[in-house]
Design brief:
Structural class: alpha/beta
Shape: elongated
Strand content: 15-25%
Number of helices: 20
Strand order of the largest sheet: 1-2-3-12-13-14-15-16
Distance between the termini: 5 Å
Largest sheet: 8 strands, parallel, barrel
Helix content: 25-40%
Amino acid sequence: MKFSTTCVNLVAILTAVAGSASAFAPTMSAVRKSSSASTSLKSTVAPSIPTTDTAADTTVASIPKFAQRWRKSTKQLATLGPASSTLEMIETLFLAGADIFRLNFSHGSQEQKQELLTMIREVEEKYSHPIAVLGDLQGPKLRVGEFSNPNGEVLEKGQIFRLDLDEAQGDNTRVMLPHPEIIEASLIDHVLLVDDGKVKLTVVGKGDKYLDCRVDVPGKISNRKGVNTPDSVLDISPLTPKDRSDLEYMIGIGVDWIALSFVQQPSDIEEIHELIDGHLKEDAFRPAVMAKIEKPSCFYDDNLEKIVELCDGIMVARGDLGVECAPEDVPLLQKQIIDTCRKQGKPVVVATQMLESMIESPTPTRAEASDVATAIYDGADAIMLSAESAAGSFPEESVAMQQRIINRVESDLHYRAYLNQLTKNDGVTPTDAVTIAARQIAQTVNAKGIVSFTLQGSTALRASQERPTVPILAITPFKETARQLAMSWGVYPELPRSGSFGFSSDDDDLTTVDNPHVSAADGDFDIVLKNACRAALRKGLVNDPNDLLVVTAGIPFGTPGAANIIRLLPAAGPSCWDGVCRVDE
């Protein structure tokens, strides 16, 4: 038997990147004596792996300053806007910790969103790390009409104010409500909230074309102010004509996630799925659907469980949810949503006003820092910035502050205790058993990471559901799958360079999910295991040849959702163990 040249070269890579040859001396002295040790480092590195000086320029993991990014489990979602619409700022936000970028289709043109997406892909390519892009649909906007007084009218407590379908300009006694669905759905004693709840109206009478309301919370009402209907389920589609146009455009440019606003019931999720099916081209990758929970009707009966089941992820949209629900209820509803998503293994994002003061201030309030920390303690997959990163004066500082809070909370012993107490689905399938075992093994042997080979992402999502104590490195043949997984807790996908787990085919050979190119992987399981070691090295998850990785995979490769193998693998490669690397003659 003799030492493996490949293993020797991989150890050389580890030594070069770690920058500490002495750390490997006790275990690898025999390998260094091999004549194979003089083999060129460059010759063993796959084309997608930057080497020497290039690595310092293009690989985040090779820069110590950013090593912490691969240690955090909670993901960060940053909204792009006027304050963050340049390539330089997008790159800055990525390096500050952003894992996902949100394109808000409520503002700006479709062409502007295409430009932002192009710049995001440039950053992704530069750093060889998948970045998810979320397209957020505006949804219906329910508003009152206009007043004859351009300054609006002040309503007094106890007065009766009418909302009707008359197109005449309003006054102190009435105004047009151009939404017959609201009039039809509203009943006596139902509440209507105007201008984010600044004015509260209670229905005391109704006709076919009007509502008579008592003013319970007085205030000023002016042109085109928004109306919320917390007590009513409206017979209205969550997708306006603008949304349908934006949805088709999102699919065409290739966003990874689509967020649906104004979700009232499970049928709304079914509606957007049907529209996506109608616009999706043959063999095109399907975008993931995220439901924004912002209406009280989502909590009627078993609506929440059904909505989570039908979609791919959930956003806790606390802006409208905080208007339509009592403020004291929102923290409890946030926990309920997160717990339901955890149980079903779906990623959940907590959003809205997380660091609101940082729109104009370089530091947050203590209450805001506590709010962000609470979402992390609750077990959220991701936390989001809106105006802070889109239109604020301190977008980089906002993202960096979120990462600081994440790092601090996840280093707290209470955090792990809270995660272990949260509801999760133990499952009964072979994949469940393998995933649970992988988490336990990783903790027992103090592994540096769990490597999950996954086709459509289901195996990596199941691993994330377990909330292991180490990062999850997801390896997939599809860039689209890798990008979608960037939303999930603890999952750091590898950006694939080909249509195979073994990285052996050209990019042009990338095939569909239903027919992946996996011949190289079938021929030599060691190929994919060696690439797992390389990927862990690039992410900075390992820095010693004896560092252990727990690998889960499914044989035969290319079977979605199948995980039937666990392999304990040293960072030096599949042919090494305890510092000795060899192959049989």
